């Protein structure tokens, strides 16, 4: 191709005017021809892709821009959200806690941000200080034992820190694994790991985790120096699979449980005492060798001694904290003095007695007697109703019968002081109806059952002498 130039005559100004173009005729297209050092402008071919022209021949002859290799440049990933967990700090195991973090791969380190920089600017936060991992001498390997999640790989640094990175998308996590591994390997090839003398690269020699997902790209660990062998072995053992530790804990627990004394031995030594509250009435009476629990007798005696004329006796609630304290002492100690000043409030004693009956595993009126008592109270004839009630009461187990007899005789004494304590038969029936009897299954109408519960207690209280016999018998 030939181009025509207009020569500037001698003596003319060095800089041509706006309309003048300084050009020269190029007669040869040989690539080796020396280019002129004067300013020139070549009219390009419209269909030809332009390449950068170097001013100096030396640069043009020795280098070609298109031939420059990019393998020497480190891989840099701008940022992406991944799941991260730090499982070891300087060789010390940490509890695994997965968090979503913004990961950025820099020249020789991996940076973790709480959020992306764009989000930080949007939220007007002063900035997010990242946590960094130095990839010099780091070990990058896929793992399936450190987490039940899929797509997990581990980064172990020279200082003994261990991190897990995970993503649900396999393509994403493979991209990050390859980039981080490539960066660590390139730093190792350049000898950058020598910046930290005396710290050998960690590698698990017997681990099955060190299996690359893409074939034989696993790095070859160097033989550690003799003076560092002991520390390396310690770190390897510490960061190895903890299956043996788990088995050891299980064995120690089995030995501890096998050597644990039985409940009977603890009871014989007095370490664990049998409960009073929540114990079955038959079991409690058999243990005490009586037909009436001693706690019920003590409460009844205390109320008859100093509470028959108390306003709203059994209706007014006592202090719940004091009642719970009394309950605890009853379960732990054999001797109980209800005349102590801390039980001065008689409503605490009556509250504890009601709590005892409510917490029985089976009520004072046993489950199998609930329906017969309901049918008996429905009897219209008064004499037949009394006889039906009396027959059922005498069919009760001995502890239930004797305890019921003591309680209803006591409640009759409460009624003799009704002008003082303002308690009536109906009031006592409302208090003790759901306390002394309830159905085994709550499938029925609760309000319907409560009506019969109150009526049964009220009727037995009225006919107490006829059902249980005269007082003193």
Topology:
Layout: H1 57-62, E1 77-89, E2 92-93, E3 99-105, E4 109-113, H2 117-122, E5 131-134, E6 139-142, E7 152-156, E8 162-166, H3 170-189, H4 229-239, H5 243-259, H6 263-268, H7 281-288, H8 294-306, H9 320-332, H10 346-358, H11 370-377, H12 382-394, H13 398-416, H14 418-421, H15 425-436, H16 446-462, H17 464-468
Antiparallel strand pairs: 1-2, 1-3, 1-8, 3-4, 4-5, 6-7, 7-8
Helix pairs in contact: 8-10, 8-13, 9-10, 10-15, 11-12, 15-16
Protein name: Rho GTPase-activating protein 15
Domain Rho-GAP: 279-468
Membrane topology: Peripheral membrane protein
The percentage of residues in β strands lies in 5-15%
Oligomer: single chain
CA radius of gyration: 47 Å
Terminal Cα separation, in Å? 141 Å
Number of strands: 8
Percent in helix: 40-55%
Low-confidence regions: 1-44, 51-73, 193-227
Question: How many separate helices?
Answer: 17
Average pLDDT rating? 75
**Largest sheet properties:** 8 strands, antiparallel
- Rough outline: elongated
Q: In terms of structural class, how would the helical and strand content be classed?
A: alpha+beta
H/E element string?
Answer: HEEEEHEEEEHHHHHHHHHHHHHHH
Describe the structure.
It is found in: Cytoplasm; Membrane. The chain has 17 helices and 8 strands. It has helices at about 55-60, 115-120, 170-190, 230-240, 245-260, 265-270, 280-290, 295-305, 320-330, 345-360, 370-375, 380-395, 400-415, 420, 425-435, 445-460, 465-470, and strands at about 75-90, 90-95, 100-105, 110-115, 130-135, 140, 150-155, 160-165. By secondary structure, it is of the alpha+beta class. It is about 40% helix and about 10% strand. The chain is elongated and about 110 Å long. Helix 11 runs antiparallel to helix 12 (about 380-395) and helix 15 (about 425-435) packs across helix 16 (about 445-460). Strand 1 (about 75-90) and strand 2 form a beta hairpin. Strands 1, 2, 3, 4, 5, 6, 7 and 8 form an 8-stranded antiparallel β-sheet that branches.
């Amino acid at each position: 191709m030939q181009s025509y130039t207009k020569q500037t005559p001698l003596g003319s100004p060095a800089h041509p005017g706006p309309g003048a173009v300084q050009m020269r005729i190029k007669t040869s297209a040989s690539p080796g021809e020396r280019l002129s050092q004067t300013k020139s402008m070549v009219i390009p071919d419209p269909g030809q892709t332009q390449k950068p022209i170097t001013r100096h021949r030396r640069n043009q002859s020795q280098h070609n821009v298109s031939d420059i290799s990019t393998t020497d440049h480190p891989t840099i990933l701008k940022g992406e959200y991944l799941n991260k967990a730090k499982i070891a700090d300087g060789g010390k195991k940490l509890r695994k806690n997965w968090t979503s973090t913004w990961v950025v791969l820099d020249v020789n380190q991996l940076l973790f941000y709480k959020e992306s920089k764009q989000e930080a600017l949007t939220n007007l936060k002063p900035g997010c200080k990242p946590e960094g991992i130095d990839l010099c001498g780091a070990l990058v390997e896929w793992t399936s034992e450190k987490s039940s999640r899929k797509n997990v790989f581990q980064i172990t640094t020279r200082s003994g820190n261990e991190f897990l990175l995970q993503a649900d998308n396999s393509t994403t996590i493979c991209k990050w694994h390859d980039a981080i591994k490539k960066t660590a390997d390139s730093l190792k090839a350049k000898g950058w790991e020598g910046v930290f003398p005396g710290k050998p690269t960690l590698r698990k020699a017997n681990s099955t985790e060190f299996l690359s997902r893409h074939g034989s790209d696993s790095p070859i660990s160097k033989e550690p120096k003799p003076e560092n062998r002991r520390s390396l072995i310690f770190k390897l053992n510490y960061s190895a699979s903890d299956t043996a530790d788990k088995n050891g804990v299980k064995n120690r627990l089995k030995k501890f449980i096998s050597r644990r004394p039985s409940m009977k031995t603890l009871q014989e030594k007095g370490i664990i005492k049998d409960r009073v509250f929540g114990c079955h009435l038959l079991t409690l009476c058999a243990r005490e060798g009586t037909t009436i629990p001693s706690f019920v007798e003590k409460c009844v005696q205390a109320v008859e001694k100093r509470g028959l004329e108390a306003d709203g006796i059994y209706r007014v609630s006592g202090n719940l904290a004091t009642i719970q304290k009394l309950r605890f002492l009853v379960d732990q100690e054999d001797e109980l003095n209800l005349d102590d000043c801390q039980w001065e409030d008689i409503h605490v004693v009556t509250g504890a007695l009601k709590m005892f009956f409510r917490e029985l595993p089976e009520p004072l009126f046993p489950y199998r007697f609930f329906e017969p008592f309901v049918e008996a109270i429905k009897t219209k004839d008064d004499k037949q109703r009394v006889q039906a009630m009396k027959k059922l009461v005498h069919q009760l187990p001995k502890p239930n019968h004797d305890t019921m007899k003591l309680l209803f005789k006591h409640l009759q004494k409460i009624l003799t002081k009704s002008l003082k304590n303002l308690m009536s038969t109906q009031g006592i029936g409302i208090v003790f109806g759901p306390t002394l009897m309830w159905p085994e299954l709550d499938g029925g109408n609760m309000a319907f059952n409560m009506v019969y519960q109150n009526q049964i207690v009220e009727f037995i209280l009225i006919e107490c002498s006829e059902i249980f016999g005269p007082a003193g018998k």
